[in-house]
Specification:
mainly alpha, about 75% helix, globular
């Protein structure tokens, strides 16, 4: 598999995880250690892993393009879901209310998700490249975790504030919606570090030299 094919595959995985995260967030709440969080938390943290890999191997400009591809793909997905919801249901199909309940996202939630996505993903690409220059291309684990942990914090705070401020009590917003989700996201970020090394090696070609630090 050549370099362009690998980039295309990683971009596809990024878009899949992003779309899955939004659908899972709307479709189901899950319990982790007694705390209630949306099911999208199993997919969305992976998007930062893929942008870090792209930034490491192909550079900041390409990673930024991947972020924008994900944004427009997600907007198209939401548009198609909305169109599917307003089309008249067949008389033989009695699940219109269930469809709207699961996939008929509230505009405030969608807006919050998109704003948080753009801020956090662009910060992740910027921070990853910043730490890459600072460490002169060494310590992949550091830039992978430093960039992702801060970016996940931005995403969680921005999304929670826009989506739920004034809707739920402030202590619930900060203590459960923001803090608990952020802790879980940090855990995922730390656990994906070995996979970052493995996938960077695969994408670059094991044993191949690194790209220019200013890429």
């Amino acid at each position: 598999m050549n370099s362009q094919s690998k980039l295309l595959l990683l971009t596809a995985l990024f878009v899949i995880c992003l779309g899955a995260a939004n659908i899972l967030s709307a479709a189901k709440l899950i319990s982790i250690f007694g705390f209630t969080v949306d099911a999208g938390i199993i997919a969305y943290p992976l998007t930062f892993l893929f942008t870090d890999i792209v930034c490491e191997v192909w550079g900041k400009r390409t990673a930024t393009r991947v972020v924008w591809v994900g944004f427009f793909a997600n907007m198209l997905m939401m548009l198609l879901i909305w169109i599917g919801g307003i089309l008249p249901p067949s008389p033989q199909w009695g699940n219109q209310e269930a469809y709207q309940s699961v996939l008929g996202s509230v505009p405030r939630i969608v807006f919050a998700s998109m704003v948080a996505y753009l801020i956090s993903q662009h910060h992740d690409v910027f921070a990853f490249q910043f730490w890459r220059r600072k460490t002169r291309g060494r310590w992949l684990w550091m830039r992978n975790n430093f960039s992702t942990i801060v970016s996940q914090g931005l995403d969680t705070v921005v999304f929670g504030t826009i989506a739920f401020y004034g809707v739920v009590p402030l202590d619930v917003l900060v203590g459960e919606i923001i803090l608990v989700q952020y802790i879980i996201k940090i855990a995922v970020a730390l656990l994906d570090t070995p996979f970052c090394y493995l996938l960077v090696g695969w994408a670059r070609g094991f044993g191949a030299p690194s790209v220019n630090l200013e890429a």
